[in-house]
Amino acid sequence: MTSRDIRQKYLKFFESQGHKIIPSASLVPENDPTTLFTGSGMQPLIPYLLGEKHPMGNRLVNSQKCLRSMDIEEVGDNRHTTFFEMLGNWSLGDYFKAEQLPWFFGFLTESVGLDPSKLYVTVFAGDESLDIPKDDESVEIWKRLFKESGIEAKDIHIGSEQDGYEKGMQGGRIFYYEAKKNWWSRSGVPETMPAGEPGGPDSEVFYDFGLTHDTKFGDKCHPNCDCGRFMEIGNSVFMEYIKNADGSFGKLPQRNVDFGGGLERITAASNGNPDVFKIDTLEAIVAGIQSALGRNGSKANYLDEKYKKSFRVVADHLRAATFVMADGMMPSNNERGYVVRRLLRRAIFHIDKLGKGDGVLEEGINSVIDSYKNSYPDLDKNRKKILSEAGAEEERFRHTLVTGMREFEKVAVGGRVSGAQASTLFTTHGFPFEMTTELARERGIEVDEEGFHKEMEKHQEISKAGIQEKFKGGLADTKEETIRLHTAHHLLLASLQRVLGPHVKQRGSNITAERLRIDFSHPQKMTSEEIKLVEDLVNEKIQARLDMVRREMSKEEAEKIGAEMEFGAKYGDVVSVYFLEDKDGKPFSKEFCGGPHVKSTSELGHFKILKEEAVSQGVRRIKAILQ
Question: What is the largest CA-CA distance in the chain?
Fold first, then answer.
């Protein structure tokens, strides 16, 4: 079965259960400063999981493009990728465990045709310290489903992953694990969740490929073992909790289901092959890379174990970089662009390990686009731009390698490369860590790998702080005060345009619970009279009790009606437009936006501008509050 077959079967299956198909969001997230990229299907739906009404209803389904850059070092085995597609279905206060688990089981066994005897599941063991019970309800549902398939399903308490290596399977099919394995929120286990963050217990489904357990991973095998026998293919999150300010947990206004299933992994399971790089799309990319190498005289072949890791890294990284560039983010030294640069440069490094690299990057990217263009037309539409940017990055990197080699020779003189030196080689000179370690190994030089990773963690924390500070349209959280200021932000932009002129466009923003900040295009400092006029206009509209109305429409229609869009932002074919309008329906403001907002400007209070200043040539900044 091809991944496209399974994607279509999944969407149709849940459509038949009353779900509305929604488009994939961009890999570059809107209104979420917590992460660089969209890393899960639920991420764009947070406002609706918290209670906001979705215009498409309370049953939704899609296939979401995802990127997890933190997995970049894991790529090289048969299952880890940075880019992947997440099949997702959601219940926003509608159905719950009794419907979700049978539906997913039926999709796997009937639509995909997986043998139920090869399926194993895990559930949440509970946390007494937080007064969160274990998930016995899911266990009873799973037992019934397996029994209907002629399988007696024994439940086993495992606990931690380490406990699993000591306890083993014990003839079980349903396994209780602690929160680290069977609890889901964007920020991890319950203890690390910030106040206001939603989360809940989950139930994961694993496919058994029947491989012999490798004891180097632990004495005994269990579903969460990394030996390769089991692969997680789906996770149903029962999102019903929210973290309180005092650290306790309360119930969300509505119980939600948030399901995520790896398209590549389900496809691999349907093919009975644990190597995700042997599914149709990735296999075609590997073939394109191998063909280009062959034209250069390379004998490198994917079936040769010594070349597999490099083929996988090149295929994954080119796929990830291509998709991100199609969503408008090009290689650079800043935040998201830095990740794109790293993906391309790691791919080029591994291309050179496979043979002469002439034309291989271009062929690999073309293979990515050709494999996915029917499902994601933007790839083909942006082919020329993607190839141009990637080609320019390759040229820069090859020049960088010359400089990097010179710097490596300097640090290698001491007979040891410290973590700080290896980090500087990478972050300053773009010299891949793999190249540092390989060159050092050839010369019998030690590299402080632990020190390097510590230095990189520091670097990533600085980058994360930077993205939160400079986040475009950025809500720092979903507190009530932040939401009120976000709505005031709409009023402020519209008022600036009316007072200063239609040339005013948003160039960035950051909104916390304490204040809002907007960067906007304007050639000169605002006068005190202009500031007063803007302030008064915002307060006038607050007093007018304008309604905030959300409408879903095509991007083309939104552009025709003149809805404001954020500079540099990438939008899908279907967009949310928020209108602030009077009782007669006349809009004062209309903007592309992902929410959340208050229902009426009457909830805002008094608006006050604190500061107006320059940011850069032709860009001004305002900081304001609500009193």
Answer: 79
